[in-house]
Task: structure prediction
Amino acid sequence: MSEKVTSLRGMSDVLPEQAAQWRALERLWVGMMAQYGYGEIRLPLLEKVALFKRAIGEVTDIVEKEMFTLQDRDGEGIALRPEGTASCIRAGIEQGLLYHQTQKWWYQGPMFRYERPQKGRYRQFHQFGVESFGFSDSDIELEHFLLVQRLFRSLNILDAVTLEVNSLGSLAARQVYRAALIDYWEKHAESLDSDAKRRLYTNPLRILDSKVPEMQPLIANAPQLQEYWDADSATSFARLLEKCDALGIRYRINPRLVRGLDYYNGLVYEWTTTALGAQGTLCAGGRYDTLVEQLGGKPTPGVGFGMGIERVLLLVEQLNPMHIDTRPAVYVVFEGPQTETVALQLSETWRDKLPDLRLVVHMGGGSLKSQFKKADKSGAKWALILGEREIETQTVSIKWLRQSDKPQHSIAQTEALDWFSQYLQGNEE
Result:
C-alpha cells in the first residue's frame, strides 16, 4: 500500500463548510472597500528576495528566519511573499503610479512565513491589506481606523478588540532613542536572553517586543520612546488622538508598541484581543513615509495595515459564529430513460432565470429510493421529481423533505419559476 500523501506542516485546507464563512467575510470586506473608494490590486506570490530585505530589514525575524526562499534557474533568489506592503510599493514604482499621485489600494490572499504552527499562526496564512500613498496628513490613518472598526462592528466582535497605538516619532528622534536604548541594554547585558543579545546592536527596539517573562521587568524599566519625541511628533500624535476621541474611536496608548518591521515611522498600531491567547493581534499597521524612496521611488508618504483572516474568523467563531446555509433548496431526482436530459435542461433554465436559487441535480444514477435518501441527506427543503408521467404531462412533482405534514403535489413545468420565485421571497406555501 502506498504511503499516504499529506499536506505540508502549517499549510491547511479550507473545506467547503469553512470556505462559506471565508466567502461571507470576503464579501463583507469587498463591499466595504467599495464604500470607502479603495481599488483592488492583485500581487504575485513570488518576489525577489532583495525586495523584502530592503523593505523589511535584514535583521528582522521575517528575513532572518521566516521567509520561504529558493533560487530560480538563473540563480536569482526569490521568495514566497511574507507580507504585502513591499509588493504594493514595488508595483506602484514599476507602473509609475506613486509619485505626485494619491492611491488607495486593497489586496487579499496568502502570505508565507516559516514559523512554528499553532492555533492562529500558520506557515501559509491569509491577509486583507490596505495601502494608501501620497497622504501626509493623519486623516488617512483615521479612515483606516474607521473602516477596521466598521468591519469588526459588522462582525459583532468590536467589543472584544482593543486598538493599541503608539508613535515612533521622527527618524532623527528614533536614532537618539536607539542610542539610549543600546546604552541601557548594555548595562543589563547579563539579563538579556539570546534573542535580545542578537538584536542588541542591529534592532534594539525589537527587544521591547519580547514576550519572554523573565525579560519583562527589564523592559518595563527601559527608556520610553515618548521621552525622545521631537515637538512635531508629540503634537501630531496628540492631534490624532483628539480626532479619535471626536470620532468615537476607542484606543489605548501602548508605549512599548514598536512593530516588527524596520520601515515604520510615526504612528504604529495594532488591533488586539485577549480572547485568542498568544495569537491576539488581528490587525496591525502604521506609517512608512521613507519606504517608497528606500525601494527606488521618489519620496512618497505611505500608510497601511494587514489583517489576519484566520484570526478574525477564529474570533468570530468564538464570539459570534456565522451560520451560513449552504444547503440546496431544491434537489432534482429523476427516473426513466428520457428524464435525465429534461431534468438537466429544466435546471439550466431555472438557474438562468433565478441565479440565487440553490438547486442540485442528482448525479451518479441509482433508484428513486436511493436518490431520495441523497436528497434528504443534502439538507434540501424540497425534492423535485421528474418521472415518465411528469415528462408526458409536462409537470414536476414537489415533495417536502423537512415538513411531513405537507403533501406531495404537482405543478406545470411552466409554473415552476413562479413557485421558486415565491420561495426566494419567503412566500412559499
